[in-house]
Design a protein that fits this description.
By secondary structure, the protein is an alpha/beta fold. It has two domains: about 180 residues, Rossmann fold (3-Layer(aba) Sandwich); about 210 residues, CoaB-like (Rossmann fold, 3-Layer(aba) Sandwich), CATH 3.40.50. About 35% of the residues lie in helices and about 25% in strands. Strands 12-11-8-13-16-17-19-20 form an eight-stranded mixed beta sheet, sandwiched between helices. Helix 5 crosses helix 8 and helix 10 crosses helix 14. It is elongated and about 80 Å long. The two termini are about 25 Å apart. The structure holds cytidine-5'-monophosphate.
Length: about 400
């Protein structure tokens, strides 16, 4: 799952009350297939124990640099060399200062100094400490050196003092780790991919719209999978799902807005994956005020929306992938769309099939290409479907 299988993630935990969230992160990274080695400062062990991390990762956590019994001093160099990513979560003001100055007097700062792996630092501290010029100067230094700083968020931290200083959410941090792995090892590095997602909403009046059941999950999976492989990704979305880390998100509602955003983002892009369920019809005119309920009912006049894919096809430079949700004659209808819209690939799914309905995390599709090829995939998680589609896109880009 994801791009973390057998990747070495060294997790540096320091002494903030948010340290308990590092346990959740360690668990999530391990579940995603990463080999997670935890290094901790002394202060971190006041908040959470090495045993917690051992239990979650199945690997010994390291605290004492001078512990000859566990060989921690040699281990740190070994971990630093092996690491694909070093994530320091949570990072206190003191640790940030240590990193900026290049000190190496505990297992966390020492690993940071010894590694060539990309580093993500997730600060968590009292808002006044975060806003202090000393901390801000150190953070700038780290950013200048290429360290990725994620958070802190504004909100209510465990200490109760509201302000900027709350640790970023573990899911966001997992996204940041996946992003960094993609940026250093991905096969789509250097390519720019535009993805569309979600069902558009065409207004009838200020409170009602014509819409569809699309959740946007398939498009978000494609965007995340492309990011995980190092692509520069823009996601034009009509869905309301959490923003994926490291993806340029452009939110739209109507087909007309999606058309404009897709056309703009496709300039200079290499590929377009249109997973959005764009409404085929929109009300001829939206009422300016909320329509009143009448006994007689209303008749809506619907007019066709622009066909975004067909328009983009005129610029025959991009690798173009469309989707076809069908309830009958799946392959025949999809093949006709592939031809009519001038696509390289079309991903067809039968919306009447069990298990791959709207909103599901699973999907079962048939991928059709220009040369008459037809690849039938089994029922898979949407992320896995996305990966298979991107395998095909990567092959087309390489041509
Ligand atoms: O014709 P149909 O709507 O079934 O085609 C589906 C494919 O075309 C999807 O990839 C969808 O994103 C795209 N589409 C589009 N503009 C529209 C309607 C659909 O780009 N107005």
């Amino acid at each position: 799952m994801y791009n973390l299988s057998d990747r070495s993630v060294v997790l540096g935990v320091t002494g903030s009350i948010a340290a308990y969230k590092a346990a959740d992160l360690a668990s999530k990274l391990t579940q995603a297939g990463a080999l997670v080695d935890v290094v901790m400062t002394d202060a971190a062990t006041r908040f959470i124990t090495p045993l917690t991390f051992y239990s979650l990762t199945g690997r010994q956590a390291h605290v004492d640099m001078f512990d000859t019994a566990s060989g921690a001093a040699e281990v740190h160099v070994e971990l630093a060399r092996r690491a694909d990513v070093l994530a320091i979560v949570p990072a206190t003001a003191t640790t940030i200062a240590r990193l900026a100055l290049g000190l190496a007097d505990d297992m966390v700062s020492l690993t940071a100094l010894a590694t060539k792996a990309p580093i993500v630092v997730c600060p968590a501290m009292d808002s006044q400490m975060w806003e202090h010029e000393a901390t801000q100067t150190h953070v700038d230094t780290l950013k200048r050196r290429g360290v990725l700083v994620v958070g802190p968020e504004v909100g209510r931290p465990a200490s109760g003092h509201v302000g900027a200083g709350r640790l970023a959410e573990p899911d966001t941090i997992v996204g940041a780790v996946r992003y960094l792995v993609g940026k250093s090892k991905g096969d789509l590095l250097g390519w720019k991919i535009v993805v569309s997602a979600g069902g558009t909403r065409e207004p009838i009046d200020p409170v009602r719209y014509v819409g569809n059941y699309s959740s946007g999950k398939m498009g978000y999976a494609v965007a995340e999978a492309a990011r995980d492989r190092g692509a520069e990704v823009t996601l034009v979305s009509a869905a309301s799902l959490p923003a994926p880390f490291g993806v340029n998100l452009v939110l739209v509602q109507r087909a007309e807005e999606m058309r404009e955003a897709v056309a703009r983002e496709c300039e200079g892009a290499d590929g377009l994956v249109m997973a959005a369920a764009v409404a085929d019809y929109q009300p001829a005119a939206a009422a300016g005020h909320k329509m009143k309920r009448t006994k007689a009912g209303v008749t809506l006049e619907l007019v066709a929306t622009p066909d975004i894919l067909a328009e983009v096809a005129k610029a025959d430079r991009l690798v173009r992938v469309g989707f076809a949700a069908e309830s009958q004659d799946l392959v025949v209808n999809a093949r006709e769309k592939l031809r009519a819209k001038g696509l390289h690939l079309i991903v067809a799914n039968d919306i009447t099939a069990a298990g791959s309905v709207f909103g599901s995390d699973m999907n079962q599709v048939v991928v059709l290409d220009r040369d008459g090829g037809q690849e039938e995939l089994p029922l898979l998680p949407k992320y896995e479907v996305a990966r298979r589609i991107l395998d095909r896109v990567a092959a087309l880009l390489a041509k």
